[in-house]
Amino acid sequence: NLTEKISQAKSEGQPGDIMAQLYNEVGLAKYMQVKFKEALKDYDTGLTYCGTIAALHYNRATILYRMGDFEEALIGFQTAVKLDPTNEEFCLAEKSCVDCLSGKT
To answer: Is the pTM of this model over 0.90?
Structure first.
């Protein structure tokens, strides 16, 4: 269970990037259950451990996008692209968000 993994990792003093990845996994599980607000909290917590993991920014932005918060989502997509500019999925999401904000969709 992921919650137990996080508790164990905390007690072992795992480095920030490991903790961030664990919170990303928990957030993904909650996203799949359509528990968006809970997933956002997990992504936010993960980002406090390590703010340079592109997938965390992307996953957080994806939820914001689905919730209709395109401006905040764009910031997350832009950060994900900046951290991992070769990831086509991140680039397409950023473009799609820009299109939504400019009324092209």
So the answer is: yes
Q: Quote the crossing angle between the two packed helices 2-12 and 16-32, to the nearest 10°.
A: 170
Q: What angle do CA 70, 24, 22 make, to 5 degrees?
A: 165
Rounded Cα–Cα distance for residues 4 and 55 (Å): 22
Q: Chain-centre distance of CA 50, in angstroms?
A: 12
Reported as a single tens digit per residue, the pLDDT across 64-76 is 999 999 999 999 9
The residues, ordered by sequence, that sit 6+ positions from 18 with a Cβ below 8 Å of its Cβ are: 9
- Helix axis angle for 54-66 and 88-101, nearest 10°, is 30
In sign, the C-alpha dihedral spanning 73, 79, 85, 86 is: negative
